[in-house]
Amino acid sequence: MKEYSNGEVTITWEPEKCVHSGVCVKGLGKVFQPKEKPWIKIDAASSDVLVEQVKKCPTGALGYYSDDDSKKIETDSQEQIVEIIPNGPLMVYGNIEVKFADGRKEQISKSSAFCRCGSSQKKPFCDGTHKKISFEG
């Protein structure tokens, strides 16, 4: 995991979860610049704006935490929400536990993208293959 801090909030990035949907770039192009190093320019937006954009990450590859416990930044919701993305994954928002066929369990918070097209190499999670195969559903 990589971390980028502005002293108020730290943005985390887990590259193995990223499916390069571009939601971050489309929402805050001045912050998220994948062709640059470092690719997250954390000082290009306020902490509140950063957090709101990070919450939109469809896979949970981007996350955040407060650097100062006295500042209250909204924490993960206890509520679970499921959203079907047209021609894309099944998005699950909130804290959940995934139980795999082999018996292992994984705790997931924030958001997760589950494959609907059946072609992901990261099943049950989405890896963006639905775009390559022109999945409709």
From TrEMBL:
A Pfam family this chain is assigned to: Fer4_19
InterPro entries: Divergent_4Fe-4S_mono-cluster, FeS-contain_CDGSH-typ, MitoNEET_CISD
Record's keyword terms, sorted: 2Fe-2S, Iron, Iron-sulfur, Metal-binding
Name of the protein described by the UniProt record: Iron-binding zinc finger CDGSH type domain-containing protein
Gene3D superfamilies in UniProt: CDGSH iron-sulfur domain, mitoNEET-type
Ranges for domain Iron-binding zinc finger CDGSH type: 99-136
Keyword RNA-binding: no
Species in which this protein is naturally found: Belliella aquatica
